[in-house]
Design goal:
This protein is an alpha+beta fold. Helices cover 28% and strands 26% of the residues. The chain has 20 helices and 44 strands. Strands 1-2-9-10-11-12-19-16-15-14 form a ten-stranded antiparallel beta sheet. Strands 6, 7, 8, 13, 17 and 18 form a six-stranded antiparallel beta sheet that branches. It is globular. The model has no long low-confidence stretch (mean pLDDT 97). It binds alpha-D-glucopyranose (2 copies). The site of one alpha-D-glucopyranose has 5 residues, from loops.
Length: 807
């Protein structure tokens, strides 16, 4: 069942009913000012940091769900409704929400009045535009009242939800020329304020929530819109809000458009006031002036669309399969951008108050982002590497505002160091910027301890070798990629952190997954060293990788698949010898990606075991059989009910590792099938089962042991976005950057018989036409001439290169 459809021409998902199975959201903003917005207008805005600079209030886990947002209310002759359906839930004659690239347009129509609101953040602007268009579609004159509404958050979102003894006394606003200024805490240490204005004369305003809603009322019972008169209230403590009242007289067919602007402004500390107690509003006035006309907002919207044209132009495919095309060309890349911007901070499942930037998460997010804005990827690499320790380990997380490592969580997640190598390799291949390797980068943010980025990578590479266990395999530490496999923790108290309450010394528990990573990512390090002329280091690295492959073959094989780990006692994890958790997905994918068992048949055997034991029509589960009891020696993974999250859920992040592994062994049909199983566009028809947005990946789909098998959770912010983009663009469609040239190596199901990829990289454009018969191994021509191998040397900037590939 569907609740809308894709409009690929407009790059939009069109939701045609407010009654989706879950709030279906979108993101506004690309750089510093961001908003989350659901299809019924719920959500909130923030500047840079969703915890520390929250502009508007949102209540997570609320009843009713998704209450609170940017609401426009209409009073048409006493009939009160909202174009987004919520909060009034007045039935609409037509409802439509279009989520596009960085914007959302919500349209409602009732009794011959159409109200459409376009929400977006202009490029390079710290403000959100809400452009409202009212159209009289009836044959009668209409006099209607329009009310805007949003509720301010007192900046620190966590404090805002907890510290009422203080907060209910500190709210302050100013109103000038119809613009509403939020200035709570501006009198003391804050040098920033928010403004909400509109480019038309207002009939009234409100800034006090109790006046606007009426004490004790819900958003759906708001008093002011029902009375069609504002209270002109000035908040003093309690709950500051912003609402404008506009009156429109519309003849049949007539339209009125209003541009509202919600802005974030900062002042110099010594230039904060223009009169005692009055904010210096020069910045806000300039912002409102800039959008004094509707045309200015239209132009900013056009600029936003051009911005996205440019971004999405660097990788496009035309295949004849519209689901494949829209995934690759539009939504997967869009999600990569959003995930890169938000990390794991703010979604409808992440409150914006929790986690910082993950060392491993951000390194992997780079993979799907680096081709979009390489300069920003470069900055991010330096930020991440600066939180590494001298021994190659790393803070597991760092805070985006300070860029400092997070002490509470600390380090000891032994997969972290290797992801940095992978991110840097992707950046260098994309850009050819080998110079980044010579950048001086601090350890632990201490400039006195700076070394070249290449030296950071050397320490990353050495980390699993130094921290090796009894079988010569890397020690796992607190956890590896699977945060929930906690082999040195043994947590018995409710509420303890599974990751940091380690009470065992360790030194035995080894991860075959990290070993697989080392085999797959180590060669990238060797290649970088070789290109820098350091043959001795490259040789050393290649030998270490060969040794690791041998160690995995000897100690990491269970007979039909790769083991997952050795635990604290040296017992095997992921073996047919135990009752539960016999086979785990992660090492099957990554060891094969690392070339283990490709020659002796173990790779294919491992992947056959995945197919037999882990695969389902909704995706590949993380492990099987699911754990039915808590195992103190395994940790959080066994804390989840069977089929959810890491305990045998379909954890979409690691499905692409199996997809890529299948392309390593040349099984294009399986790779293609696995990709389609979890790709949102292919799951659109079962939206009532899947429940979250059909245009973006979710972190998890409930596995076969769960009552709600096939139901997704935790949509938007997940490494799934970048890994699936890597899988489909680089391995199925097979166009991936190498160090010296563009590699064309398709391996996609025969269903896709012919396709063209346009790839812009390093200033040149490559048009690659593929005729496919399934399988793997293409013969190439470049500008009509056959070439050996599958790597097309990079052309000069400005060139267009025509490539054909026949599989
Ligand atoms: C979450 C974390 C990620 C981790 C994964 C598996 O998505 O953000 O770092 O690898 O869970 O546990
Ligand atoms: C929990 C989740 C895991 C996530 C971690 C982040 O362990 O199960 O997916 O990565 O929290 O701290």
């Amino acid at each position: 069942m569907q609740f809308g459809h894709f409009d690929d021409q407009a790059r939009e998902y069109v939701i045609t009913t407010p009654h989706t199975p879950y709030p279906w959201i979108n993101y506004l903003g690309t750089q510093d000012f961001f908003g989350l917005i659901s299809h019924t207008g719920g959500g909130y805005s923030f500047y840079r940091d969703a915890k520390l600079r929250r502009l508007t209030r949102y209540r997570y886990n609320n009843v009713p769900v998704d209450d609170g947002g940017r609401y426009f209310s209409i009073n048409d002759g006493g009939d009160v409704w909202s174009p987004g359906f919520r909060p009034y839930k007045t039935e609409l004659d037509r409802f439509e929400t279009r989520h596009g690239m960085g914007y959302t347009r919500i349209t409602g129509e009732r009794n011959g009045l159409e109200a459409s609101v376009l929400f977006f953040v202009p490029v390079d602007t710290n403000a959100e535009i809400h452009q409202v268009t009212l159209t009289n579609t009836s044959d009668q004159d209409k006099s209607v009242s329009l009310f805007s509404f949003l509720e301010f958050c007192l900046w620190n979102a966590e404090d805002d939800q907890t510290n009422y003894q203080r907060n209910l006394s500190i709210g302050e606003v100013e109103v000038e020329d119809g613009a509403i200024y939020h200035k709570t805490e501006y009198r003391e240490r804050r040098d920033h304020y928010a403004v909400y204005g509109v480019n038309a004369p207002i009939a009234g305003f409100d800034t006090d929530r109790d006046t606007f809603l009426g004490f004790g009322n819900g958003f759906d019972e708001a008093a002011v819109p029902h009375a069609a008169t504002s209270g002109d209230s000035i908040a003093s403590g309690w709950y500051p809000i912003a609402s404008h009242h506009l009156k429109a007289d519309l003849e049949p067919g007539e339209t009125a458009t209003y541009t509202f602007v919600l802005g974030y402004l900062e002042n110099d500390r010594d230039d904060k006031w223009e009169a005692p107690g009055a904010i210096n509003k020069a910045g806000a006035r300039a912002l409102l002036d800039r959008f004094a006309t509707n045309e200015a907002a239209d132009a900013a919207f056009a600029e936003l669309n051009e911005y996205w044209d440019g971004l999405l132009g660097s990788y496009t495919v035309t295949s004849g399969d519209e689901k494949l095309d829209r995934s690759v060309n539009i939504w997967n890349q869009y999600q990569c951008m959003v995930t890169y911007n938000m990390s794991r901070s703010a979604s409808y499942f992440e409150t914006g108050m929790g986690r910082g930037m993950g060392f491993r998460d951000s390194s992997q997010d780079l993979l799907g982002f680096v081709h979009l804005v390489p300069e920003r990827a470069r900055e991010r690499i330096i930020d991440i590497a600066s939180t590494q320790f001298e021994d190659g380990s790393a803070y597991h997380q760092y805070q985006p505002l300070t860029k400092r490592g997070n002490h509470t969580l600390g380090s000891g997640f032994n997969d972290d160091p290797l992801w940095l190598i992978l991110g840097v390799a992707a950046y260098v291949k994309e850009t050819g910027d080998f110079g980044i390797l010579d950048e001086m980068v601090p350890f632990d943010n201490d400039e006195s301890k700076a070394a070249t980025l290449m030296e950071h990578l050397r320490r990353s590479f050495n980390h699993p070798l130094v921290k090796a266990g009894p079988h010569g395999l890397p020690l796992i530490g607190r956890a590896d990629w699977n945060d929930c496999l906690n082999l040195n923790c043994f947590s018995t108290e409710p509420g303890e952190s599974f990751q940091t309450t380690g009470n065992k010394t360790g030194g035995v528990a080894e991860s075959i997954f990290i070993a697989g990573m080392f085999c797959a990512i180590g060669p990238e390090y060797a290649a970088l060293a070789r290109r820098r002329g350091d043959d001795a280091e490259a040789d050393r690295a290649e030998k270490a990788v060969a040794d690791m492959r041998a160690a995995v073959t000897e100690h990491g094989w269970d007979g039909e698949w790769f083991l997952r780990a050795y635990d604290y006692y040296g017992n095997k994890v992921g073996t047919h010898e135990t009752q539960d958790g016999q086979i785990w997905i992660e090492p099957q994918g990554y060891c094969v990606m690392g070339g283990v068992g490709v020659e002796d048949g173990k790779a294919v055997q491992a992947l056959d075991s995945v197919r037999e034991r882990l695969n389902t029509p909704h995706g590949i589960v993380l492990l099987n059989p699911a754990y039915t009891e808590y195992h103190v020696e395994l940790g959080e993974v066994t804390s989840y009910p069977p089929g959810y999250k890491e305990n045998a859920g379909i954890f979409c992040h690691n499905n692409p590792w199996v997809i890529i592994a299948e392309t390593v062994v040349g099984r294009s049909e399986y790779a293609w099938e696995y990709w389609k199983q979890i790709a949102p566009a292919y799951r659109e028809e079962i939206s009532e089962v899947h429940r979250t947005e059909p245009y973006v990946y979710a972190q998890m789909i409930a596995g076969k042991d769960a009552a709600r098998h096939g139901e997704a959770k935790n949509s938007w912010l997940t490494g799934t976005a970048s890994w699936n983009f890597v899988a489909v663009s680089q391995h199925l469609l097979g166009v991936r950057p190498g160090y010296d040239g563009l590699i064309v190596d398709p391996c996609i199901g025969a269903e896709i018989s012919e396709y063209t990829v346009r790839r812009q990289i390093r200033g040149a454009t490559y048009v690659i036409t593929v005729s496919n018969s399934g399988g793997k191994g293409a013969s190439l021509t470049v500008d009509g001439q056959p070439i050996d191998g599958n790597e097309v040397p990079y052309a000069a900037p400005g060139a267009t290169v025509e490539i054909t590939a026949t599989v």
